[in-house]
Amino acid sequence: MAESFLLEVAGSLLRKLGSYAYEEASRAYGVYDNLQGIKSTLSIVKGVLLDAEQKKDQNHGLLAWLRQIQSICSDAEDVLEGFEFQSKRQQVVKASGSTKMKVGFLLSSSNPVIFRLRMAHQIKDIRDRLDKVAADGAKFGLERIHVDHKLGVQRREMTYSHVNASNVIGREKDREEIIQLLMQTHHDGGHDRDKGVCVIPIVGIGGLGKTTLAKLVFNDLRIDELFQLKMWVCVSDNFDIRQIIIKIINSASASSSAPTIALTNQESINSLDIEQLLSRLRHKLSGQKFLLVLDDIWNDDRAKWIELTDLIKVGAVESKIIVTTRSNSIASMMGTVPVHVLEGLSLEDCFSLFVKWAFKEGEEEKYPELMEIGKEIVKKCRGVPLAVRTLGNFLFSNYDSDKWKFVRDHQIWNLEQKKDDILPALKLSYDEMPSYLRHCFASFSLYPKDFTFTSEEIVSLWVALGLVQSCDGSQKLEKTAKEYINELHSRSFLEDMEDFGHFYLFKVHDLVHDLALYVAKEEFLVVDSHTQAIPEQVRHISVVENNSLGHVVFPNSRSVRTILFPVEGVGLSSESLLDTWISRYRYLRLLNLSDSTFRALPDSIGKLEHLRLLDLSNNCKIKNLPHTVCKLQNLQVLSLRGCKNLETLPQGFGKLISLRQLYITTKQSFLSESEFANLSNLQILCFEYCCNLKILFTRVQLVSLEALFVHSCWSLQSLPLYILPQLVALSVVDCKMLNVSLLSNDRPILRMNFLHLEDLPELEELPAWIHGAADTLQTLIIRNLELQIPPPFRVLPHLKRFHVANCPTLAILSFDMNDLAALEDLSIDGCPELCRIYQPRSGQFWSVIAHIKSVTIGEPTSEEERKSWLST
Fold first, then answer.
1. Which of 647, 663, 679 is the last residue of a domain?
2. Residue 734's CB: how many other CB atoms inside 10 A?
3. Residue 872 has pLDDT above 50, yes or no
4. Together in a domain, 193 and 324
5. Between helices 99-107 and 60-96, what is the axis angle to 10°?
6. How confident is the model at residue 95 (pLDDT cuts 50, 70, 90)?
7. Same domain, 194 and 328
8. For the chain, which terminal residue's Cβ has fewer other Cβ atoms within 10 angstroms, N or C?
9. Does 303 fall in a domain?
10. Could you give the 3-state DSSP secondary structure of residue 468?
């Protein structure tokens, strides 16, 4: 499936070739004509890629042709990045003012004359290869297909309203909740007609049973008593107003007419113009109290939705609409009541459903061994009924225990799938995904199931691999990447999302993970104890088991872009293997060696000119870094977090001028301010377990720094805020010598929107400088503090999230309803008195916070426990 990403890769390459910066560089180095030739040919090839993608499964020659283009595009990306690296190397040499460095630069392969000749040769080679492949492609007879954001979308079958309720398991509670909403009065009279029809959205991932739930409600006898008219419309393909109106009229006719009459009406209205159709629609709906189900909505164009609702307002005031969709944002746009988020079935219900599909009635009693295996199989389905049905149907009337064990032990995407099974159902959502999200989504396959992602981690990966494109060219890539996360969440691909303001935590549903594996299976590979060899076309490698590297044959191909160790406790111990990787994979973008145990990073690391992310976190054996690290002018992220034996940062690390994120653990007492002064692009800076560090900075202005994290720096005494004019996030944890109240002697105007204070023994009240962030602070987290004075909510009118934990001396939160106008998320735990007085429904101050969208209050303690806690 690697070719699925080729369209976006080609598009990204064309954007680079068309940019002013590359045009100027190509003229300066005398390669303008060849680059324009590449651009012209690639534009033609890109036009037929969609046709080739759709036909490749029937033609192995096409598959090989696509792989050749993939290889050429990859090589072109590497060559073009040479311009960027040369510019950055010249910038560092010029800024150094060092004669020795200038001489070294002229004697190196970066010498302008040598670089010009090398680039000219490489670019001509790429043009020749691309021209040849483009000519070869002509024999396939490919056609240019208009390319929008969708690739080869496979639509689901049109749905219908009939359901056998006896076959549906575990949706009784959901049905009752929807019916209760339908029975509620949402208007007080005719004067409310302009507010529109009540719309109840049902949202969830593919296969969860949204349509089935809508059917259960639609066919409930109570609905016939509530509504004069019921209509079922499957929208699915395209939100075409004319076609939806025709479907509504047909459904209304079928609901109120004999079948023969309804069919005649259906045949006659297809030829009507839009005015005639609207007249028919008004005739059918006018004055009627109706229920309309719009099943399988993909439209995110609000204007179209408003247009449709305006047309059907002619019904009675108490009319209702149920919509089903996979998108949270669409559900929010359409709904007039809170979204009904459909959850997975319980394990017990899943097993009952599985037995119904895997056995003939009563037959399961003969096969107790298969029943036990079946209990393990349904766990793979994570509550998704279509997955349960798929696997049960796959095993129906097959009593071979080996086949059952195969299903239990293998990924769902390894099994044969029919068009109505779970993987095709989920792939619909993937097919609907904008092309820029597809490569990002596939990267989830590099991580194990049930992995807890942080937004920083996945954003860094996407940016390092060049998968993020700023919409207008000015927005920071990290912000765009977070928008990608929000969009994936909106499309129900992510779950358990926790928003902490500055960062997110989230997971990927197991079945969605299976989909990621399916779409990424040629380009992304997870290495475990079962892996013997890595295919040549693999570009991104993830190692998840410590004992998996001894027998694995790594490819000689230079196409590898990612090596990742995502699992805690799993890392690299072999320095010789690391040296092999560095020498073989010269075009690596991401090298994550976290939790490794090698003692030294090879000097050859400096040859990875394209490297953007280097993660050495939690390597407790490494003591020094080679100075060649400072040659990595493209490096954006460097993590030394948890490297507790690291003596010092390498001299010259200020040459890492592209650095955006820096995570440090070091034994140093002082840092070189002159080195940090050169890191003009630094956005995130983290100090963790820097036990000897006393002072961070005194003079240097970190003008681009947006987030500062200082954790477990027990000797730290000074942290002046005035050197951080752009700071938006601050986290200070377990710094015993640091008095955060003295971080600034005045009250500066801060842009801070995130503040986290924890384990600061001297802090009895929140610092006065917090007033300087009154207009921006949105997230406040305080934990393990001996606060005596309540937080100053009256100066924090924009606060959205407040989390307080283990602050036993805090007895009251001084706010009223007006202070909490913006608060959406309140969490209190480990605070005996606070938990008592704000306890839901029973606490004396519950009424003050009851309106907040999300409130979590810990269990109150007894008076004896409270006194004991306060005395410790």
1. 663
2. 17
3. no
4. yes
5. 150
6. confident
7. yes
8. C
9. yes
10. coil
Taking only the tens place, the pLDDT of each residue in 514-570 is 889 988 878 899 999 888 889 888 999 999 998 888 788 888 888 899 999 999 999
Domain end marker among 644, 663, 682: 663
Beta bridge partners, 494, equal: 508
pLDDT recorded at residue 447:
95
Tokens of 237: 């393909």
Neighbours of 403 (CB within 10 A): 14
Whole-number Å distance between alpha carbons of 694 and 672: 13
Q: Please give the Cα distance from 107 to 111 (Å, whole number).
A: 6
What percent helix, strand, coil does the chain show, rounded to 5?
Answer: 45, 10, 40
Q: Which of 520, 527, 362 is nearest to 430 (CA)?
A: 520
Query: Do 216 and 131 belong to one domain?
Result: no
Distance of alpha carbon 333 from alpha carbon 188, whole angstroms: 23
Region 710-716: mean pLDDT is: 94
* 825-829 and 504-508 strand pairing: unpaired
- The Cα 108–Cα 271 span in angstroms is 75
Q: pTM of this prediction?
A: 0.83
* pLDDT surpasses 50 at 192: no
pLDDT band at 374 (very low <50, low <70, confident <90, very high): very high
% of residues, the chain, pLDDT over 70: 90
Q: Is residue 725 part of a domain?
A: no
Asked whether the beta carbons of 169 and 356 are under 8 A apart, the reply is: yes
Are 373 and 466 in the same domain? Answer: no
State the sign of the Cα–Cα–Cα–Cα dihedral 782, 784, 785, 789. Answer: positive
197 Cβ partners below 8 Å, 6+ apart? Answer: 309, 312, 313, 315, 319, 320, 321, 336
Residues 643, 530 within the same domain: yes
CA 727 to CA 499: how far, in whole Å?
Answer: 19
Q: Do 537 and 510 have their domain in common?
A: no
Please give the Cα distance from 746 to 732 (Å, whole number).
19
Mapping DSSP onto H, E and C, the string for 708-769 reads: EEEECCCCCCECCHHHCCCCCEEEEECCCCCCHHHCCCCCCCCCCCEEEEECCCCCCCCCHH
Residue that wins the pLDDT comparison between 683 and 160: 683
CA dist 311 and 301 (Å) reads 16
Q: What does each C-alpha distance from 314 to 182, 183, 581 come to in angstroms?
A: 18, 20, 69
Domain range for 217: 165-341
pLDDT given at position 4: 57
Residue appearing with tokens 């769902």: 412
Residues in the chain: 872
Whether residue 484 is contained in a domain is answered as: yes
Q: What six digits make up the tokens of 580?
A: 């092999």
Same domain, 391 and 451: no
Question: Which of 128-137, 667-676, 762-771 comes out lowest in average pLDDT?
Answer: 762-771
Rounded CA gap, 205 and 325, in Å? 8
> Other CB atoms closer than 10 Å to residue 474's CB: what's the count?
6
Residue whose entry in the numeric block shows the structure tokens 């983290």: 686
| Cβ atoms of 637 and 460 closer than 8 Å | yes
Say if 724 falls within a structural domain: no
Say if residues 768 and 746 touch (Cβ distance below 8 Å).
no
